Amino acid sequence: MININFILESTPKIFEAIPITLIMAFVAAALGWLLGLGIALIRKSKVPVLSQISAVFVSFMRGVPMVILLYISYYALPIMIYSYGLSIGITIDVNLVPPAIYAIIALTLDQAAYSSEVFRSSLDAVDAGQMEASYSIGMTKVQGLFRIVFPQSLAIAIPNLSGLFLGLVKGTSLAYYVGVYEITATANLLAIPAYNFIEAYIMTTFIYEVISFVLNKLFLIIENRLKKFRIEAVLQKKNIFEVVNYYGIHGAIRKHS
Amino acid sequence: MEYMVQLENIHKSFGKNQILKGVNMNIRKGEVVVILGPSGSGKTTLLRTINFLDSANEGSISVSNFKVNCNKHSKSQVIELRRKTAMVFQNYNLFQNKTILENVMEGLIVVKKYNKKEAKKVSMEILDKVGLLERCDYYPSQLSGGQQQRAGIARALIMDPDVILFDEPTSALDPELVGEVLNTIKAVSQTGITMIVVTHEISFAKEVASRVVFMEGGNIVEEGKPTEMLVNPKEPRTQQFLKRII
Question: In chain A, whose CA is at the least distance from the CA of B159?
């Protein structure tokens, strides 16, 4: 039987763990995607040495299981920081660093690798003529990238980034293994004393579902905003008569099919 | 004699494939030079070396007395050269994420550092000239090819360049839309701006060009006044080409 009392009692406690899950996801995505964009640009413009290093990094990251990456970050990083501290004559108390930081580092690196591939393909998808046109009116490379190419490639990348982000939110549950009390860990720990695992897993599933649903909607809104320059997106807003009026009936059929 | 554009000994290869084999060209202020020639003759490449979209391997390019050495140039030199030129592309290449008005304003705001209000005013005037005032808030994907190309011309014109480069401006258009674009280019040519046009429109060349250049195999084969060269070409290769295309 489902223990309703357990659900009612533990729900507020699990809710308290939602922020740490979201913080890990948002911070890892923000840092990871920035890094990923950098890697994509380095690889696209074939910067010597850096581009080879990036390729190896991406290939390695895509091959290593998330849990192992978390363990590496949690166990190896503190030792490295500690011994580096000793080498310059400072004793760093690595135990003061909350485990969530190590989890964020691991998740960030993972996101950097995966998002770099998303960005690379979305940058490739923007017509080279866009950059040429920027150059032709005297813009610099940086101006052309930021004002013309990035907005277009972001619109292309958003659906994939959205998927990546939802995966990341669920990936944060692995931070349980390194002692971060996020949603899954909290639910599990609450379940242990009376073996209420079924209830706990039903609740966690429900919470992840709701979070994913809301985030998905959020990404759709962003996507539609970014794509406003694409005709398909405009079509959704206009009614069919306006479209026919504008393109003529054949044009409207062509645009619609 | 003062020249607006001077190309000296331009060489360009893509890998082992030599596209331009030492092209020389001097263009006076206000001249409209039309470059003709079969596919693969290097016309477009020549045009693209002028604003360094393709950088030539050898030679030098000078636009209104600003000379850049092709095998020894800095980034800032290239940018300065590009700011003296503007280009109209075969595939329009309008900024897809910007409206027609924003497309035209972009150069004024980013490159010429106009404030937004001023840039908008000037842009609206130029869009009116090319007949796109009512379409100014549309995105490029909502316009016909002819309208897009006219917007492309407006975007180039507004930079007040010393020379405008037209790279087959009507080749991607439906036949019925070619006329409106050619008329716009004709109107531009009457303002006295220096133009270099790569095209296959012979009748347009006849009407607008002050000089016609025929290229083949990376070299200039023949050049002259349109009335002479298009009617009575001297070189056999030019005769053959014109016979086939007319």
Answer: A137
